[in-house]
Design a protein that fits this description.
This protein is an alpha+beta fold. Helix content is 30%, strand content 14%. The chain is built from 13 helices and 16 strands. α8 packs across α13. It starts with 7 loop residues before the first strand and ends in an 18-residue tail after the last helix.
Length: 380
């Protein structure tokens, strides 16, 4: 069967929307699939990102999903149930005589290769906290004992990309360094900005692999083979931030998921009854992509609580709640916390504060006699 006989296709004149992996930093990079019979667009998560060398997101309607069926399978099964007599005599393919049926396509086996960053690159970043702004903020706010424990637990690194920048390492359950996000924070705990060539403000956020390429190119040095391969194939935030904690924590200890690594680190000190993890980006918390389900797979048998950021009219809370509903249908035990929603002001919602922003604004460090087991945020 040739590509031209597929019912669901990427049209020659592409229709663009935001890529689930690239947004919000990049807009309208996703080429959408259409139904060639009706001309209608498929759901927005089906498409291929144009940033192939940096993102490589591609979700086909013929890719097998968490249910064990592809989108094409599900549409065909629905049609077959609604038209049993016609289905018995209709080949499952598209041709001039049977344009309504969905083609039987064997979905390609997903690439199981794991792309990671060499151990020596990771090890070189660990420590050097005297020149790490995030480490300095943790020491100032929590004191040396708590700050050092957090830095060790989350294996925070230090980067030379910008003076004072840190590295949030995304380490999977097997200890592989799947990616390292570089950030530079200001004294207010927010990401610093710079002005790009177009005069626009951009966050001082990068990735270890991108910083290495930039440094080697500046020195006119060759790119090592591992780095070239990683650049072509690796995903952003391919796993949850903070996963190694699962290896040392009780199986019945609940997991809390927030958006940003900074938030996971800070909240771990305030509310230790949870194992705090970060998804990396709001768009990564999804059941609609293979990568999205892969990120959540290590939590399959744990109790999970979502702590969404604040947003105008609670849109972030609503989105996380929808994902929680979808996960519950797949057997996950998930709740969504309204801890922030119950306490925040309209100004804080407008500013889009996350839980760490709220806590750091309310509490200026631990009082000497403060009991950390008290007043913990509860899901729901």
């Amino acid at each position: 069967m040739t590509a031209s006989t597929y019912r669901y296709q990427l049209p020659r004149k592409s229709v663009k929307s935001d890529c689930p992996e690239c947004s919000p930093r990049h807009h309208r990079t996703l080429s959408r699939y259409i139904d060639s019979q009706t001309g209608e667009l498929l759901p927005e998560h089906f498409g291929r990102c144009d940033r192939e060398s940096n993102c490589s997101y591609h979700l086909s309607p013929y890719t097998i999903g968490p249910s064990g069926m592809s989108y094409a399978d599900e549409v065909y099964e629905q049609w077959k149930n609604e038209n049993p007599l016609v289905a018995r005599s209709t080949p499952r393919r598209i041709n001039e005589g049977h344009a309504i049926a969905v083609p039987k396509i064997v979905a390609p086996v997903p690439d199981q290769t794991v792309y990671s960053i060499p151990e020596e690159v990771f090890a070189h970043s660990i420590g050097h906290y005297e020149r790490n702004q995030f480490a300095r903020l943790l020491h100032q706010h929590f004191g040396c004992t708590v700050a050092d424990e957090l830095l060790q637990r989350f294996q925070i690194g230090t980067s030379a990309r910008w003076p004072g920048s840190c590295v949030f390492w995304y380490i999977d359950e097997d200890g592989r360094k799947r990616g390292g996000q570089i950030k530079l924070f200001g004294d207010d705990w927010h990401t610093e900005k710079y002005i790009d060539r177009d005069g626009k403000k951009q966050p001082k956020t990068s990735w270890v692999n991108s910083a290495l390429v930039r440094r080697l190119q500046a020195k006119q040095l060759p790119i090592p083979e591992w780095l070239a391969t990683y650049e072509r194939h690796a995903q952003r935030s391919p796993c949850l931030f903070g996963l190694p904690q699962l290896l040392t924590q009780p199986a019945d200890k609940p997991v809390a998921i927030v958006e940003a690594p900074k938030t996971a680190v800070v909240c771990s000190a305030y509310f230790p009854r949870f194992i705090w993890l970060a998804i990396g980006s709001l768009s990564y918390l999804t059941t609609h992509t293979t990568m999205g389900m892969s990120r959540l797979a290590p939590l399959r048998y744990r109790k999970i609580a979502f702590f969404p950021d604040l947003s105008i009219q609670g849109s972030a809370l609503a989105r996380w709640s929808r994902t929680a509903d979808e996960l519950r249908e797949l057997g996950y035990v998930v709740t969504v916390s309204d801890y922030l929603e119950k306490r925040a002001t309209d100004e804080e919602r407008k500013a889009g504060l996350d839980l760490a922003d709220y806590l750091l604004g309310q509490w200026k460090g631990y009082p000497p006699d403060w009991d950390k087991s008290a007043e913990q945020p509860r899901p729901g």
